[in-house]
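2024-03-11 09:14:02 INFO queue: dequeued item AraC-like DNA-binding protein, len=271
2024-03-11 09:14:02 INFO validating residues
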Amino acid sequence: MQFRQIPPPEYLKDYIRFFWVMESNDTDISAASFRTVADGCPGLIFQHPDKGILFQNDKQLPGTILYGQATRHAELRINGRFNTIGIFFYPHALKSIFGLNADELTDTCIDLDGMADKQGFRLSEQLSNLSTSQAQIDTLCTYLLAQINSNTQFTDKAMQHVLDRIKQANGNISVKELREELQLSERSFERRFKQHIGITPKLFTRISRFQASMHLLRQSDYNKLSDIAFENEYADQSHFIRAFKEFAGFSPFQFQKRSKELIENLSILTK
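2024-03-11 09:14:37 INFO prediction written
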């Protein structure tokens, strides 16, 4: 299995964390399953229909998938050889790039061709006709830039400020404090945040704190699990473990023993 992580061009760096390409010619790869975890970000996946198809809960996923915020872990499996390109967006991307209310895609996905059809073309067909990953990424960049330029009215600087504050604090920040900074009522703040990010501000801060703790776990930057719990302001180690199980699907100890991360927040599970 080959994996590459590719940075976005400068003009998309405020929207895209990175592109990724995953390829395999192993016909037995279907014996393995992939696990995603809640990471606070939406994304896009393009899969060649003749080079392996992703399944979730025995349901075949479409060729070009736009997915929203995940509030829990999920497992995917692959059928046959595959050649897949993905994008990890920043949390605001569904609204600022596509003009979608982000909460409509929370814990689900859509076939992006359904949106492309309205503009007179099918994105998956364009990508399928290209012979290299770089050409496909270039086409995706052109497509996304056109989407951004046609949806500039959905940019929300206040919500971007909130996201920056949460990121800087690794999720350890009061939602009330954020709301008061914007001088919004609790109801208005939550509604606006869900439209742009897909989940409530409280849940997003919890996922951000979980992700910060997972980063320490990946880096082995601790002596014992209670150090991670303390660093990320969990009440105690048991609270940290419960949060980890909620968003990753298993305990920190099981994560270390059973999974090998191909990229951040995507693991291949070993038997």
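2024-03-11 09:14:37 INFO annotate: The first helix runs from residue 93 to 98.
2024-03-11 09:14:38 INFO item closed
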